[in-house]
Amino acid sequence: MDVDLCAGGESTRKKAELPGAADGTLDVVPVEMYDSARAKIAANLRWLFAKAYGIDHIPEDLRDPFYTDQYDQEHIKPPVIRLLLSCELYCRVCALILKTEQAASLQSHMSVIQALSRKGIYVMESDDTPVTDGDLACIPIKMSAHISMIDALMMAYTVEMISIEKVVASVKRFSTFSASKELPFDLEDAMVFWINK
């Protein structure tokens, strides 16, 4: 499914009491009505905003990236669309993650794609076609390309924050393991190793 401006179908939600929630309630969506595409968009955008602005400083109008129109259809808010098309957030987040001297040169979607590729992270659609500058700047917005860009930024963040060596050193502090049989071979395996130990 290529998600354009529409983020999902019906949004029938129920409120459930949850201790510790900000207002004491939590939206619970029945499984048969769960919209995974909407959830992916919401999670990716919230991560992007948290990295760009800081978790406690996300502008009020961006905290919920969706609005519901008069036909009860949910869409991504126009200010969010403008931010994604402008590449401002991508440049800011990429500069924070990669901490490179070339941070000032990050001024376009293409410069972010190139900075990520220099780190071995490629912005690819789900069908393995590369995301282009045109995909990220086209109107109406091609949300699948933006999700791929945010996913690549998330991967860059993971690579910068986590290494196999750091995970093994952490596990050594509180657990024993057989180095000849259990050492992780990539980041995903390292995370599973950490969780299991």
Provide a quick synopsis of the model.
This protein has 197 residues and is mainly alpha-helical.
Structure annotation, total helices? 9
Q: Which bin fits the share of residues in helices? A: 40-55%
Q: Which oligomeric state applies?
A: single chain
Average pLDDT across residues? 82
Largest sheet: 3 strands, antiparallel
Protein name: Calmodulin-regulated spectrin-associated protein 1-B
InterPro entries: CAMSAP (IPR032940), CAMSAP_N (IPR058042)
Pfam family, one: CH_CAMSAP2_N
Organism: Ilyodon furcidens (goldbreast splitfin)
Helix and strand topology:
Elements: E1 6-8, E2 14-17, E3 25-28, H1 36-53, E4 66-68, E5 74-76, H2 78-86, H3 88-98, H4 109-118, H5 133-137, H6 143-161, H7 164-174, H8 179-182, H9 187-196
Antiparallel strand pairs: 1-5, 2-3, 4-5
Helix pairs in contact: 1-3, 1-6, 3-4, 3-6, 7-9
Domain CASAMP N-terminal: 27-160
Protein name: Calmodulin-regulated spectrin-associated protein 1-B
Structural overview:
The chain has helices at residues 36-53, 78-86, 88-98, 109-118, 133-137, 143-161, 164-174, 179-182, 187-196; strands at residues 6-8, 14-17, 25-28, 66-68, 74-76. It is mainly α and 197 residues long. The strands form two sheets. Strands 1-5-4 form a three-stranded antiparallel beta sheet. A two-stranded antiparallel ribbon has the order 2-3. A hairpin with a 7-residue loop joins β2 and β3. α1 packs across α3 (88-98), α3 (88-98) packs parallel to α6 (143-161) and α7 (164-174) packs parallel to α9. The two termini are 37 Å apart. InterPro entries: CAMSAP (IPR032940), CAMSAP_N (IPR058042). This is Calmodulin-regulated spectrin-associated protein 1-B. Pfam families: CH_CAMSAP2_N. Residues 27-160 form the CASAMP N-terminal domain.
